[in-house]
Write a structure and sequence with these properties.
The protein has 30 helices and six strands. By secondary structure, the chain is mainly alpha-helical. It is globular, with a radius of gyration of 29 Å.
């Protein structure tokens, strides 16, 4: 059974915007007219919007009385509206089948955990648990826990407290049922009731010792910061079932959190010795190896494992955890250079740059100049001269010219993208991503755009959307949105004509053209696309590593003659490239060390901006 979103419209309905009270009024009208089917549809919509409203439940009871129970009005199909599922749950409980009703409420919670689907008297009544088998209650609690983060953010806990009340009632009636106490502990832990979680889990293992009981107890101790006790419980779990390798990974993760990396890796190796393909151990091992020595190869190997094993036992976050906040692994880098610094100051002062000036030693990247003149038209920009090599000229002969220059003023050399392209990039562009393969997968949404649209987006980036992300960037650093559009447009190029072999492909040719074009933010975006291609396709790694090495060497040579605002970012890109040679890696590290003061420093307010941008992407 798959549930449709609570803002979807039941079959045959056209208006999604009615409130719960409006839906309730229509339900009552249909019920008075004897139109039970339409009454049921409107009641389902009312429940989806206000699942605890007493008047909705009173009308549902009237409908049930008119239809001999009402269950046939809310059938379960493959795609069922969540409001209909909740209505059926309440009717099942009223007809003496609360176990089935509780399962449906748990399914609704899995669909939308932030809604208080179970906040009704029959769920929290103490007598309910006396009518249910403790095993069934445990299964429902585990079903709910399976969809919740650990811990649940405070703002989301109120919607789940009815399940905690259910757990309290059940633990009172069944004080020695190990499975129930363990499942109740898991829920309490997620809802921030850690001392209660410890008490329940401890009682469970005392009355019915079991592997899972010890695991639940270990997790509870870990949430309380009692690492020694947590490890002791997990060790006992291994003794009870040496073949459950997931516990080995749990032990490794717990040891790593206390800084005992060598001990942690020993446990992952013990698990891998038993099963080299066990996903939990593989993910944990690669993460810990990378944590120990910082070698990118561990993360690339993990990405390869994920690609080759799509049917892992459950979703893992190790790769995303390692890439989060890392330049180009999990986010684009902030633009560097005095022009962008002046742009940020103009935005902070909210004065369009009036009365401010910035003097540049050489022409700025065209994307930076276009962004600055658009956002801060009052900013006076002076270019001291044209040092060699001329930054307005491509670094290599290029078949694709993006810009025309009149003196130091760039204008796009390509037509604007279509409205469809603008809409699609607005839906996808974001300055952060879980890891490069995830960015590649997300960019498949651009696969339908033609080459002209994707290139047009690079020089005609649309305005930031009128949402929280757009407002945040407009208020602090508009350059990030432009760079994000360019990054995702280049990722879209990776999905262009994917039937062509890489070496002769249009996507490779165009991206290399962009990499070697005029020094610009587009250069970085195109190189990131090449690096991403190497992450997702091992066969292209040598080719990409060569291209990255050559482009970085060129940037380093130019930087000895004049400023190269994109040099540090290119160095970070190089360090994100699989199979990069040691000489280029050393050059990249040197460039970052020598030139990184051009980028915002860690205590700059921009650091807080990045934290806010990345936060919505965390699970």
């Amino acid at each position: 059974m798959q549930l449709r979103r609570e803002d979807d419209v039941p079959e045959g309905r056209e208006d999604p915007a009615l409130s719960a009270t409006e839906e309730l009024a229509l339900a009552r009208l249909a019920l008075d007219e004897g139109d039970l089917r339409h009454a049921a549809d409107h009641l389902a919509s009312a429940l989806a919007r206000a699942p605890t409203l007493p008047e909705v439940h009173e009308t549902l009871a009237r409908l049930a009385a008119a239809d001999g129970g009402g269950l046939d009005l809310f059938p379960i199909t493959h795609h069922t509206f969540v409001g209909a599922v909740v209505a059926r749950a309440h009717l099942l409980a009223a007809s003496g089948r609360p176990a089935e009703g509780l399962e449906l409420l748990a399914a609704a919670t899995g669909h939308a955990p932030g809604t208080q689907w179970a906040g009704v008297p029959w769920v929290t009544a103490s007598e309910l648990v006396e009518r249910l088998e403790p095993e069934h209650i445990a299964r429902v609690l585990m079903q709910v826990c399976a969809v919740l983060p650990d811990p649940v953010p405070r703002a989301g806990r109120a919607a789940l407290t009815p399940y905690l009340t259910l757990a309290r009632n059940a633990a009172t009636v069944h004080p020695e049922h190990g499975l129930l106490l363990g499942a109740a502990s898991a829920l309490a832990r997620r809802l921030g009731e850690v001392p209660l979680a410890i008490r329940w889990a401890s009682r469970g293992v005392r009355t019915q010792p079991s592997k899972m009981g010890e695991v639940w107890l270990g997790y509870a101790y870990r949430s309380a910061g009692r690492t020694r006790d947590a490890l002791a419980a997990l060790y006992r779990a291994v003794d009870l079932d040496p073949d459950d390798l997931a516990i080995y990974a749990d032990i490794a993760g717990t040891l790593a959190e206390t800084g005992r990396l060598d001990d942690a890796l020993e446990w992952t190796e013990r698990a891998l010795a038993r099963d080299p393909s066990f996903d939990c151990a593989v993910h944990t091992a690669h993460r810990l190896r990378h944590l120990r020595d910082g070698d990118l190869a561990h993360l690339v190997a993990l990405a390869d494992f994920i690609r080759d094993h799509p049917d892992d036992s459950h979703e893992h976050g190790d790769l995303a955890q390692c890439c989060r906040g890392r330049p180009w692994l999990g986010q684009l880098t902030p633009a560097g250079g005095p022009l962008v610094d002046a742009l940020r100051q103009a935005v902070a002062d909210d004065d369009n740059g009036l009365g401010s000036a910035v003097r540049l030693a050489a022409a700025a990247p065209p994307s930076a100049l276009r962004t600055a003149t658009s956002v801060a038209p009052g900013l006076r920009i002076e270019v001291a001269g044209t040092p060699e090599p001329d930054p307005r000229e491509p670094r290599r002969a290029s078949a694709q010219r993006l810009w025309h220059f009149a003196e130091n003023v760039p204008t796009p050399a390509l037509p604007a993208p279509s409205a469809a392209a603008v809409e699609r990039i607005g839906q996808l562009a974001h300055p952060a991503w879980p890891h490069p393969p995830a960015a590649y997968d997300a960019a498949v949404g651009l696969a339908g755009l033609d080459l002209g649209d994707l290139l047009g987006l690079l020089v005609h980036p649309p305005a930031a959307p009128a949402n929280a992300l757009g407002r945040l960037l407009a208020a602090q650093d508009p350059s990030i949105w432009v760079r994000g559009v360019q990054v995702w447009a280049c990722l879209g190029l990776l999905h262009h004509r994917t039937d062509e072999p890489w070496e002769e492909s249009t996507r490779r040719r165009v991206l290399l053209d962009l990499v070697w074009g005029v020094e610009d933010w587009v250069t970085e975006a195109a190189m990131f696309a090449l690096v991403t291609a190497a992450w997702v396709d091992p066969s292209v790694r040598p080719d990409v590593a060569r291209a990255v090495a050559e482009r970085l060497a060129d940037a380093a040579a130019v930087a000895r003659a004049r400023p190269v605002p994109i040099a540090v970012s290119l160095a970070y890109l190089a360090l994100a490239a699989p199979e990069l040679d040691a000489t280029t890696a050393s050059l990249a590290t040197s460039l970052i060390g020598d030139l990184s003061p051009q980028l915002p420093r860690p205590r700059n307010p921009l650091r807080r901006l990045w934290q806010r941008l990345i936060a919505p992407r965390r699970r």
